[in-house]
Amino acid sequence: MKMIYIPNEEHNPRLNLAMETYLLEEKDWDESVVFFYINSPSVIIGRNQNTIEEINEEYIKEHHIDVVRRMSGGGAVYHDFGNLNFSFILPSSDHFMDFETLTAPIVKAIRDLGVEDVHLSGRNDLLIGDRKFSGNAMYKKKNRIVCHGTLLFNSDLTVVNDALKVDPSKLKTKGIRSVKSRVTNILPHLPKKKQNLTTEQFRDEILKSIFEVADLKEIPIYVFTNEDWKHIDKIAQEYYENWDWNYGASPDFNTKYKHRFPTGSVDVRLLIKGNTIEQAHFYGDFFGSEDVEKIAKALEGCAYSKEAIMDRLADIPVELFFGSSVTKEEVADLILGNLVEK
């Protein structure tokens, strides 16, 4: 498939995410688009997460770290100048949630640089040996998809534990004590002659591998026009510079249940009065192609019983919201507190 590259030297995470959103949702392409960005220190929150519960707010403020919510699901990640972010934007959704296929060019590129034992693990992580260097996510719009991820090249890994509040159950399932013990930078695994590469030079090596060229001048590129930038700035203001989008208000609730499915953790918050669900909210690092708020709205005014909840979910394809392996009955059992957290 024909590919085109979008050069980008911007470090503002709000603008970088706005560019990516524009490329997926508003710009018409017949070819696949390759887009890279290096963010200044920031925490990027998954679409379905409760921001304030994912970050160490005091540390974030003290160190002037930006907090921005992205469009895709998955978990919170820390970015800095030693982290390279890649984005593949495809004109077809044929490979939606097929992380193995869509991350294969990245795996090959890092192997080409001389790093051994690079592989996909679990649902969306890339590892060197048993240590993670890349977390990946996807989302779909208008039958097109973006697959994007981090590449820890020479990042400050000491900040990760300080900036993020990591779900202990997530660490427990992986048999580890901290995020830092689980992750690694790519740089130390490179051959010695390549260990002086900057993050930008690393990006260029990845590009040459993806496009199978010896010189960057051989890569077909597209440069944003002034008209493109008008759209990008509008998206940045509407979403990524908007406090309500990045943080959002914490809803009132009096009932809370959580369960880790194979597709990720789902945390449900309910405001129940009498025997009726007045409000419902879902949080977590799960992936879905639909906005989970639709299910939350469908549950408003529902009697708090399995029969009533199943009736409300009857015509809703829950797998599109929480992942392919999650069933209606499991969602109902989660809401009722019938699932034991794993």
UniProtKB/TrEMBL annotation:
GO molecular function terms noted in the UniProt entry: ATP binding; lipoate-protein ligase activity; lipoyltransferase activity
UniProt feature coiled coil, ranges: none
Group of enzyme by EC: ligase
UniProt-listed PROSITE patterns: BPL_LPL_CATALYTIC
Gene Ontology cellular-component annotations: cytoplasm
Gene Ontology terms: biological process: protein lipoylation
Keyword Phosphoprotein part of the UniProt annotation: no
Recorded catalytic activity of this chain's protein: L-lysyl-[lipoyl-carrier protein] + (R)-lipoate + ATP = N(6)-[(R)-lipoyl]-L-lysyl-[lipoyl-carrier protein] + AMP + diphosphate + H(+)
SUPFAM superfamilies the record matches: Class II aaRS and biotin synthetases, SufE/NifU
Keyword Ligase: yes
Signal peptide: none
Biological or metabolic pathway of the protein: Protein modification; protein lipoylation via exogenous pathway; protein N(6)-(lipoyl)lysine from lipoate: step 2/2; Protein modification; protein lipoylation via exogenous pathway; protein N(6)-(lipoyl)lysine from lipoate: step 1/2
Designated name of the protein: lipoate--protein ligase
Species this chain originates from: Catellicoccus marimammalium M35/04/3
Phylogenetic lineage: Bacteria, Bacillati, Bacillota, Bacilli, Lactobacillales
